[in-house]
Amino acid sequence: MVELLLIRHALPSRVEMIEGPADPGLAPEGAAQAALLAAGLANEQLAAIVSSPMRRARETAEPIASAMALAVEARDDLAEFDRTSSWYVPMEELRAAGDPRWRAIVEGRWDEVYGVNLHDFQRGAVEAVESVIADHPGGKVAIVTHGGVINAYVAHVVESRKTGVFEPSYTSVTRVLAARSGERTLRSLNETAHLR
Q1: Rounded distance, CA 87 to CA 27, Å?
Q2: Which residues on neighbouring strands pair with residue 72, listed in sequence order?
Q3: Checking DSSP bridges between strand 46-51 and strand 139-145, what pairing results, if any?
Q4: 41: CB partners within 8 A, 6+ apart
Q5: Per residue in 17-60, pLDDT tens?
Q6: Where does residue 54 fall: left (phi above 0), alpha (psi -120 to 50 degrees), or beta otherwise?
Q7: 0.85 cut: is pTM over it?
Q8: DSSP E strand stretches across the chain
Q9: Using an 8 Å Cβ cutoff, are 174 and 154 in contact?
Q10: Structural domains of the chain in order of their starting residue, each with its CATH number
């Protein structure tokens, strides 16, 4: 049995570039969230910490790894759908501004905003998480990744047709139990007590 801790990265900085992928690091508030997360997970006895290669995820994973004397295993297939985008604006800012990109994302028109096929992304995200389970067959494993990846996997576990099952908070922990038989059980969703 594997207990997965699916962790959304902390708050990143807003970045809008003329060209090249925007890969922002954490904002000061995000760095504080990552420190609180690491303290909140101090008693978890993690067997491994796996991360998306994107800066916001790696910078969230590093304090956890440091506190537990573990290495962060970066995996390319855990990257978010916006990995090649030249801009990163937190979703809550897009929503509050009524940005048309927000509406397109909510309606599943990711190809218009990010040039990514929604179904291909979802399939890849599920395969990525399942490969982590296969590579770490026992204990607790933290996966520090993104809201899109977490939503894709949770939708798979609960057999939802919706893309966005919920809105993960920054540094939230969602727990999934993965049995060797292939059964997957959602244990908790969007834990944020460590931020209080």
Answers
A1: 15
A2: 49
A3: parallel
A4: 5, 64, 67, 68, 142, 173, 194
A5: 888 788 999 999 999 999 999 999 999 999 999 999 999 999 99
A6: beta
A7: yes
A8: 2-8, 15-16, 46-51, 72-74, 87-88, 139-145, 173-178, 184-191
A9: yes
A10: 2-195 (3.40.50.1240)
